[in-house]
Design brief:
CATH superfamily of the largest domain: Dihydrofolate Reductase, subunit A
Order of helices and strands: HEEHEHEHEHHEHEHEEHEHEEEH
Mean pLDDT: 88
Strand content: 15-25%
Radius of gyration: 23 Å
CATH topology of the largest domain: Dihydrofolate Reductase, subunit A
Low-confidence stretches: 343-364
Oligomer: single chain
Distance between the termini: 52 Å
Shape: elongated
CATH architecture of the largest domain: 3-Layer(aba) Sandwich
Length: 364
């Protein structure tokens, strides 16, 4: 059972992990505690090729100063040699006698650090502040576990589940606080996905903007699903990044093929914001890791549902979700939800009969 000092140290480790850059490597923080529970050093991972968080913390101590110490780390210490050596070996060599970590390393080559530490007589405890660490590392963990980017599917709807009025008008269902939240979340993504139906109907910019309309520092790469051409006058063509469009040739393997191509391009976080058909396609394929549903206290009625057919024909097939949080945003509510069971692995998916292909609103 983690002590109060170790729990506090883990929360500190999670905070300092954010100082590291987001990229292909995980953001990791480490805090070293003396036998009395006092903080003696801390460190974080500063990017590919630099010392890992544990080694960074150890480097701030004189030789032998870590003997008998406890290392508190947000991710299981690695057990492989890449551009840097195994953190498990560094902790053993430093004389650390206890390691507390938040979440396990699922990597094929990097996992196994906990076993190596235990084999050397180090006391190891896992799962301290695991939920928060998993949230911090969600995109990296998804890439490691499933070989594809982490996918967030977002939509805005009325209280009766509609995304637009019968005449097709849909802008400003939600208020300014909700829209500002969407833009902040867009800025955390590496790519933003919309269908050609949405691009043609709404002419979205697919940028992440501040409330004054200026562009936020980080902009996701715009991705368009569908075969119809994007007009030369489209706002999308003025995006800071060139957009990627996946047509029948690229997407013949379905959405997994699109995500695989994005992963090869270095994309780890995908933000899906492309209309009812696109949202349904990701849900139907079990490719949504997180749902963001913005609900406005308005009634619209009609047939324009916020999500299309997801392949559910009976109530037993209903997709069960765990609501992680409900966030008030002005008069609106944001529901953050996740599937209650992990998505199928690539091997399982390969053996499953396909029930859908990439589509956009209007191209389904």
């Amino acid at each position: 059972m983690a002590s109060r000092a170790e729990q506090d140290a883990m929360r500190r480790a999670l905070t300092i992990a954010l100082q590291g850059p987001r990229g292909v490597n995980p953001q990791v923080g480490a805090v070293l505690l003396s036998p009395a529970g006092d903080v003696i050093a801390e460190g974080w991972h500063r990017g590919a090729g630099t010392p890992h968080a544990e080694v960074d913390a150890l480097s701030k101590l004189s030789p032998d100063a870590a003997r008998g110490a406890t290392a508190v780390v947000t991710l299981e210490p690695c057990n492989h040699t890449g551009r840097t050596g195994p953190c498990s070996e560094a902790l053993i060599a430093a004389g650390v006698t206890r390691v507390v970590y938040a979440t396990a390393d699922p990597g094929d080559h990097s996992s196994g650090g906990a076993e190596r530490l235990r084999a050397a007589g180090v006391d190891v405890e896992a799962g301290v502040e695991e939920d928060e660490a998993t949230g911090l590392l969600d995109s990296w963990l998804t890439v490691q576990r499933l070989g594809r980017p982490h996918v967030t599917v977002k939509w805005a709807q009325s209280l009766d589940g509609r995304s637009a009025a019968d005449d097709g008008t849909s802008q400003w269902i939600t208020g300014p606080a909700a829209r500002a939240d969407v833009h902040r979340r867009r800025a955390r993504a590496d790519a933003i996905v919309a269908g050609t139906g949405t691009v043609l109907a709404d002419d979205p910019a697919l940028t992440a903007r501040a409330q004054d309309g200026s562009l936020l520092p980080h902009q996701p790469i715009p991705v368009v699903l569908g075969t119809r051409a994007v007009p030369a006058s489209a706002a999308l063509r003025r995006h800071p990044h060139d957009f990627l469009q996946y047509d029948g040739d690229v997407a013949s393997g379905g959405l997994p093929a699109v995500l695989e191509d994005l992963r090869r391009r270095g994309v780890q976080r995908v933000f899906v914001e492309g209309g009812p058909a696109v949202a349904a396609a990701f849900l139907r394929e079990d490719l949504a890791d997180e749902l963001l549903v913005y609900v406005a206290p308005v009634l619209i009625g009609g047939d324009r549902l916020a999500v299309g057919d997801i392949g559910v024909t009976t109530i037993e097939e209903a997709r069960r979700l765990a609501v992680a949080s409900v966030i008030p945003l002005g008069d609106d509510l944001l529901y953050v939800a996740r599937p209650t069971s992990p998505p199928p692995t690539p091997a399982v998916r390969a053996g499953r009969e396909r029930v859908g292909t990439p589509s956009s609103e209007g191209d389904a």
